[in-house]
Design brief:
This protein has helices at 9-14, 35-44, 47-51, 54-67, 81-88, 107-112, 118-121, 123-136, 149-158, 166-174, 176-200, 217-234, 257-261, 276-283, 302-316, 336-349, and strands at 73-74, 90-93, 97-100, 142-147, 204-209, 238-239, 242-243, 246-250, 267-269, 288-293, 322-326. The chain is α/β, with parallel strands linked by helices and 357 residues long. The protein has a single domain (28-284), classed as TIM Barrel. The longest helix is centred in the middle third of the chain and has 25 residues, at 176-200.
Length: 357
């Protein structure tokens, strides 16, 4: 029997339904800024060992909820688990980030790239979701996620992080058919992966298009947005009698808000380089908005954090359809106490923006 959800503010806000206050969660809320996370990561032995151990992944997912009055948990994992499952062999280099042992170097590499069996190669993520839902016991919703096809492709082609994405961008211009083959395989895999997360208990899902902003407007529509819309259309939008909202977060793509809003998603994540007032004016009531405090504000003093939280809430203004978040992930050097100030400020200031139900 399904456990009743005690706090459904996130799900209602994402569906632009009335709420008493603005819900808040933070991208990368389970991470290196927390000393308890660092201890669990050391216990696991490596980052991938941590991701692939469902009980430990559950533990780090729950750690921020023990400290802060957050309105959602997001399952601890990594966007690059999909390329790893496709055989590229993910590993991490200290101080440099993710690397692949077998990056894509030719059209033949793309053609040979398998569509992984989700249950077999990524079942540890589903197990972590199931364990976490059990441990949450209905306290708050659990968010699942994936990287976008374009963002995943950049890592797979470059072999890791990149400053200018020269190899990936050369592929879309020199060999667009090969790029579309790769992105199509990734879109199908991401769709299956997110549907498996939903079946396992994820109550909302987010697609991280971290590097969409590296593309020109025309290339973005052809090689990124097109495939995210394909994913959205293939997702199971209802589970256990309730809608499963879909959030698209496309960093650096504020020129594309109208097109993103037309993708079929429920909500758009917005980075800090546009005001929520402007974003709301442009998308209207088509989608909810999530964001968009500059993450570096959390390095400032408590008074500044409170002022910026209030300004962000005021920028969206009265009414429904706002989820408070950062404009990107929380950074490792943030003092956890500062995140507590942010969460408390959202809870203090936001009720005035919502009509009593």
């Amino acid at each position: 029997m399904a456990v009743e959800l005690k706090n459904d503010l996130l799900l209602r806000a994402l569906c632009r339904e009335p709420v008493d206050r603005t819900p808040v969660w933070i991208m990368r809320q389970a991470g290196r800024y927390l000393p308890e996370y660092r201890a669990t990561r050391a216990e696991a032995g490596s980052f991938m060992d941590l991701c692939q151990a469902p009980e430990l992944a559950c533990e780090v997912t729950l750690q921020p909820l023990r400290r802060f009055d957050l309105d959602a948990a997001i399952i601890f994992s990594d966007i690059l688990t999909i390329p790893d499952a496709m055989g590229l062999k993910l590993y991490f280099v200290a101080g440099e980030g993710p690397r692949f042992e077998f990056p894509l170097q030719s059209p033949e590499d793309v053609r040979r790239l398998p569509r992984p069996d989700i249950a077999e190669s990524l079942g540890y993520v589903m197990d972590a979701i199931a364990v976490t839902r059990r441990e949450l016991d209905g306290k708050v919703p659990l968010i699942g996620f994936s990287g976008s096809p374009w963002t995943l492709a950049t890592y797979m082609i470059e072999g890791g992080s990149s400053k200018n994405f020269s190899k990936a961008k050369r592929l879309i211009y020199d060999q667009p058919a090969v790029a579309h083959e790769l992105l199509g395989k990734l879109a199908d895999t991401v769709t299956a992966y997110l549907n498996a997360q939903i079946e396992s208990g994820a109550q909302a899902v987010q697609v991280f298009d971290t590097w969409g902003g590296a593309l020109s407007a025309a290339a973005y529509e052809e090689f990124s947005l097109r495939y995210m819309a394909r994913i959205v259309s293939g997702l199971d939008r209802e589970s256990r009698g309730r809608r499963v909202p879909v959030i698209l977060f496309s960093k650096g793509c504020n020129t594309q808000l109208e097109a993103l809003a037309a993708s079929g998603c429920d909500a758009l994540g917005v980075d800090w380089t546009i005001s929520l007032a402007e974003a709301r004016r442009r998308v209207g009531a088509r989608v909810a908005l999530q964001g968009n405090l500059d993450p570096t504000v959390l390095l400032a003093d408590h008074g500044a954090i409170r002022r910026e939280v209030e300004a962000t809430l005021s920028s969206f203004g009265p009414g429904e359809g706002h989820v408070f978040n950062l404009g990107h992930g929380i950074t490792p050097e943030v003092d956890p106490e500062h995140l507590g100030v942010l969460v408390d400020a959202v809870r203090e200031f936001s009720p005035a923006l919502h009509r009593p139900r």
